[in-house]
Write a structure and sequence with these properties.
Two copies of one chain form a homodimer.
Chain A (H helix, E strand, L loop, with lengths): L5 H9 L8 H14 L2 E5 L8 E3 L6 E3 L6 E9 L6 E8 L4 E10 L2 E10 L7 E4 L2 E3 L1 H4 L11 H4 L6 E9 L9 E8 L12 E4 L1 H7 L8 H8 L9 H7 L5 H9 L10 H14 L2 E6 L7 E4 L2 E4 L5 E10 L6 E9 L3 E10 L2 E9 L9 E3 L2 E3 L16 H5 L6 E8 L9 E9 L11 E5 H8 L7 H7 L10
Parallel strand pairs in A: 6-11, 18-23
Antiparallel strand pairs in A: 1-16, 2-3, 4-5, 4-13, 6-7, 6-9, 7-8, 7-12, 10-11, 14-15, 15-16, 16-17, 18-19, 18-21, 19-20, 19-24, 22-23
Helix pairs in contact in A: 1-5, 6-12, 8-11
Chain lengths: 477, 477
Amino acid sequence: MSLTSCSNELLASAVCSEGVHPEKELLDWVEKRNRAHNYSVQPVPLEKLSGWHFEASTGNLIHSTGKFFRVEGLAIKTNAGSVHGWMQPILNQPEVGILGFLAKRIDGVLHLLVQAKMEPGNINLIQLSPTVQATRSNYTQVHGGRRPMFMGYFLGEERVRVLTDQLQSEQGARYLRKRNRNVIMQISDDALMQPPEDFRWLTIGQLQRLARQANLVHLDCRSILGGTSLGGADAQEGLSVLLAADTFQGRVLASIRAGDSQVEKSLAEILSWLAHLKCHCEQQVRSLPLKEVVGWKLQDGVIRHETGRFFSIVGMAVQAASREVASWHQPLVKSMDGGIIGLITQMRNGILHFLIQGRTEPGFLDLVELAPTVQCAPANYLQGTHTPLPAFVEFLQAMPRERIRFDTMLSEEGGRFYHSQQRHLVVELEPDVSIEIPPSYCWMSLGQIHECARFNNLLNIELRSILACVPLAGCAN
Amino acid sequence: MSLTSCSNELLASAVCSEGVHPEKELLDWVEKRNRAHNYSVQPVPLEKLSGWHFEASTGNLIHSTGKFFRVEGLAIKTNAGSVHGWMQPILNQPEVGILGFLAKRIDGVLHLLVQAKMEPGNINLIQLSPTVQATRSNYTQVHGGRRPMFMGYFLGEERVRVLTDQLQSEQGARYLRKRNRNVIMQISDDALMQPPEDFRWLTIGQLQRLARQANLVHLDCRSILGGTSLGGADAQEGLSVLLAADTFQGRVLASIRAGDSQVEKSLAEILSWLAHLKCHCEQQVRSLPLKEVVGWKLQDGVIRHETGRFFSIVGMAVQAASREVASWHQPLVKSMDGGIIGLITQMRNGILHFLIQGRTEPGFLDLVELAPTVQCAPANYLQGTHTPLPAFVEFLQAMPRERIRFDTMLSEEGGRFYHSQQRHLVVELEPDVSIEIPPSYCWMSLGQIHECARFNNLLNIELRSILACVPLAGCAN
């Protein structure tokens, strides 16, 4: 295989489901790291969180240093979706964090340095995480802890090769215009031969295989990988070698290099569709004090909606030997159970297309981002109002087993979300099934999605999360 | 020539300096349109503008309908540039307008439908303008005028081929997060054979040639053309035919298709540099009532800075038979004279590179956009403070004649700016001259700039304005 350009090297790593450590060894290692660390996470009423308090004048939940993040209020008016006005609590963390993988060639194939890392909100406390996840508070050490390992590679202190480096949005329904820098930096082949015990070198294909286990591969890994361009125009030569016969992975690979004559819409048309959606999106987002947010209340030490729907904010006390700080208290967001992130795919004009939604969320910087076909917690729609379920939810839930290409429970980020998981579902419609799509949806090839992934604030985090699960390696059903 | 893809068709039009109308005929036509229209533009004190008033509670200058735009205040704190805090008036026009060209093939070459249009602030009252320039107020007819011609092609009412369609920023130092949709839509070859008398079909190359005449080609033409990807990866075949020997245009053309091994930085590295700039940009922009803006005053019916620098807001009474509304009053921005928009180019690794600035302006949606090497009114720096001139201003002003590739006075948009023009200057350094560049500057190939032009809020309007002047056709010195 002669894949030399950087995107082709990433692609070669993605189709490589074997790395320097066999899968069994990696699972044993995670198990061992789980046992090696002492941790406990216990609920604490928000009023009693050490270091945090409700600010008298606003009711906002803030840290005594003014750093980290704060919970404040948001009022939204919008012409998107079926609900046109509401208020909600929102996380405000006005600093850009770094989510970064180190990468290097081992036996000629790119491997990523994966960390077995504990987060308070993780269902499995240890998850496979990027090399570095650091808020600016972390790496400027405002909380007095240690600087996260390997930061120098991401702060320009060491010589590296940039494979991907882009600001990307976090959850627009929970964060106010929050972005993180999603980064993969390649280091020289002979560096870090013996990484510390919490780190292992894995291929992207191995991470994809492991993503099929519930709540094992951290959202931040999915965020980086799903937002990385694999292949592109110059992938052709490599791909012609790799293209398997008639497998879903083969169709996925072919979708990366789909030509202009094969795609449903040209990229120019897709960008035009997106410009149109942004032009017609009328959205007013206004920050307000948490105490003025109507419909939400502090009850039993938890902030929740009066209907019990949407999400709640809970307090937790954390004890952990393996983190930069040995113990701390913090608020966490608890989402509704039963959330679905679903991606519909279909062979169209002989090329696998992905049904992408142009979606508006209150915390987006630029009104509309590309999102999965379905992104929804159906339980939010069951009681009270007669608001209909969003498009394709029931269609996806009724999908027969043989059309399902990926189906795993995967977690939200455990540093801000408590035991919050979503069903990640990739389905492939039969080629002859015709479905009607609303104007805010669009069929795209994977190559077109990757093209958009290179620029900031185009793919939302839920889309990146599910894209990272679309199987490229030899791990499909 | 077998250029079939859409970007190659645009490129073929750009290198074609002859169209269905010879240049002489076009200049006569502009002259005739100037004579055909009755117009007069007379100053009126802002307090006496019909339909406009200073709102009592805020001091903001607003229209009685609440539509069009308003002049309000802005307070800026930033770590960018040499001045770290100031207040200023700013235009707030929270609606997306459409700047659009219709295009069609004539004798196999793409022509754009250009309008000879009067704007109150134009130095030459009639300028060559896009087919359509319409604010949302215009085309929804809130002011009671006629709907601009050809709108149907841009509002999805007619079948068209999208050549380019992207939201792009307006002047970030004068507008608060304003964007317009920059569009080129191709119609069928047999449509609009006889356009109305104010319209003519021109090739892109003809527009580029005419841009060498002072204040003739409107900023909105330059905005669209400078923000349009020409060529790209698939331009190779066509270009090998077109590449002239050793001319500046030949080097410009070759820069469009520069390969990964020839560029100074890869696109991944450039996007990483931009992500780094955005991460380290600390900017707080706060809207405030105009009457709270310190340092500015209403004097003799004009809003100006107490030093006389920066810009002023003036009132004008307009009489014109050829506009949607026959007469109206409006405020206009008058910039300082002597402004420079300058682009330094240089052969590096055998490829022409452009020295691009990562620039922060208060009205940007996303902190940093790509900007020309120099964008500055030196007069703003001469009096009072000891603030040094921005990088490369004096260097550019001292450039010997034989290094200059383009040098013309071109106007700001005459619908909002009054008699405001800037010297547009493209220079080419000798290949062996070594210059030191600050960290917020970066050498890029034209192909890389075009790649960025496809996505919104990456190229600021001054960069698009000067890019449209970089000669591709046979019109250089």
